[in-house]
């Protein structure tokens, strides 16, 4: 009875383990698909950075690789829980160990070995190419593309210029674009920014500061990178925590299985039919590698009630004699009744009863 209760508990634990891995599988697929879709549907600024400079996609690649590893690990866990296979549970722990090592290395690489963001060199590129050396007369299409790019950056990040709004005043543009304006003061911006740049006074600079975004795009990009790094760090730590829990869960299941197998071997009990299914092994193998032949031998080795052929034969003969003498003497002899026949019948009957009892 205790073995059956323990077996039921182990099965329920395996079901919980499979359910957790199913949730992890769905979550990993969702994250990977969302990352791929969002990576393709980027705005014009990110697309331009990829084409002209070479966008650093280390974070996106790390998320995709982590999702793929989680998909493989969760599938192994689900199949192992379904087939109750210690072989797959050991593979599950091995994959988790590899994933944990990769997570630790990624965290060390991003936070200790390579902490500085590389976006400032992109901004330096824009500063050189767009604000100073780009000639709008000779390269009108390229100028328009760069200007549209800067408009997107300044609108989304709510910044103006690389280091200050005066970067625009000293550029070949000799103007401050409308994308530098705050949304609440667009009408005022139209009046302030339409004047001639060469005739800007200190009062004009003060008025411009009051209507444009207060921070520069270098600072805005650094904030964006810090937010992205924080998100990736939280994502990696969360996955690391989940993997540690699953590793402990898997190790606990293996201990339960080994303990259950030891008890079965000691007490010689049988599993039910479904609990012994294995993957990549014969179906007559039960948990822990105990073949069905060993179970049969263990059953044969159990102490049984010893049989006595002679006593069994005497008991059968005695029963046959009772059946033979069970017919009344008057029926056997027809209408004649032998005097003393009743006494002879009862004596024979008692003798047969003694023989049956002695045989038993």
Automatic annotation (TrEMBL):
This is Tetraspanin. It comes from the Eukaryota. It is found in: Membrane. Keywords: Membrane, Transmembrane, Transmembrane helix. Its main location: membrane. Residues 297-360 are annotated as: Disordered. The lineage of its organism: Eukaryota, Metazoa, Ecdysozoa, Arthropoda, Hexapoda. PANTHER family: TETRASPANIN. Residues 351-360 have a biased composition (Basic residues). It is a multi-pass membrane protein. The chain crosses the membrane at residues 16-37, 58-83, 95-114, 231-249. InterPro entries: Tetraspanin/Peripherin. Coiled coil: none annotated. Residues 309-324 have a biased composition (Basic and acidic residues). It comes from Allacma fusca.
């Amino acid at each position: 009875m205790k073995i059956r209760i323990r077996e039921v508990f182990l099965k329920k634990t395996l079901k919980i383990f499979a359910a957790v891995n199913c949730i992890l599988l769905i979550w990993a697929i969702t994250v990977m698909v969302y990352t791929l879709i969002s990576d393709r549907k980027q705005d014009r600024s990110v697309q331009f950075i990829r084409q002209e400079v070479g966008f650093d996609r280390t974070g996106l690649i790390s998320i995709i690789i982590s999702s793929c590893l989680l998909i493989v690990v969760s599938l192994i866990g689900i199949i192992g829980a379904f087939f109750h296979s210690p072989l797959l549970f050991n593979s599950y722990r091995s994959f988790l160990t590899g994933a944990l090592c990769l997570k630790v290395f990624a965290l060390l690489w991003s936070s200790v070995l390579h902490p500085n963001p590389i976006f400032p060199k992109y901004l330096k590129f824009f500063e050189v190419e767009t604000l100073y050396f780009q000639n709008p007369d000779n390269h009108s299409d390229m100028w328009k593309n760069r200007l549209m790019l800067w408009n997107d950056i300044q609108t989304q990040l709510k910044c103006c210029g690389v280091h200050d709004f005066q970067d625009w005043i000293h550029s070949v543009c000799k103007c401050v674009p409308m994308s530098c304006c705050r949304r609440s003061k667009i009408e005022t911006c139209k009046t302030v920014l339409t004047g001639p740049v060469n005739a800007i006074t200190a009062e004009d600079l003060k008025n411009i500061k009051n209507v444009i975004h207060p921070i520069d795009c270098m600072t805005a990009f650094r904030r964006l990178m810090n937010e992205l790094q924080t998100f990736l760090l939280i994502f990696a730590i969360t996955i690391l925590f989940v993997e540690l829990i699953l590793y402990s869960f898997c190790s606990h299941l293996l201990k339960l299985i080994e303990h259950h197998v030891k008890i079965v071997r000691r007490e010689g009990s049988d599993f039910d039919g479904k609990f012994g299914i294995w993957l990549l092994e014969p179906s007559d193998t039960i948990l822990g590698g105990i073949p069905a032949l060993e179970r049969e031998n263990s059953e044969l080795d159990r102490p049984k009630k010893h049989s006595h052929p002679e006593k069994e034969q005497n008991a059968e003969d005695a029963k046959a004699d009772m059946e033979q003498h069970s017919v009344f003497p008057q029926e056997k002899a027809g209408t004649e009744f032998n005097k003393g026949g009743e006494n002879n019948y009862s004596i024979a009957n008692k003798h047969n009863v003694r023989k049956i009892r002695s045989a038993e």
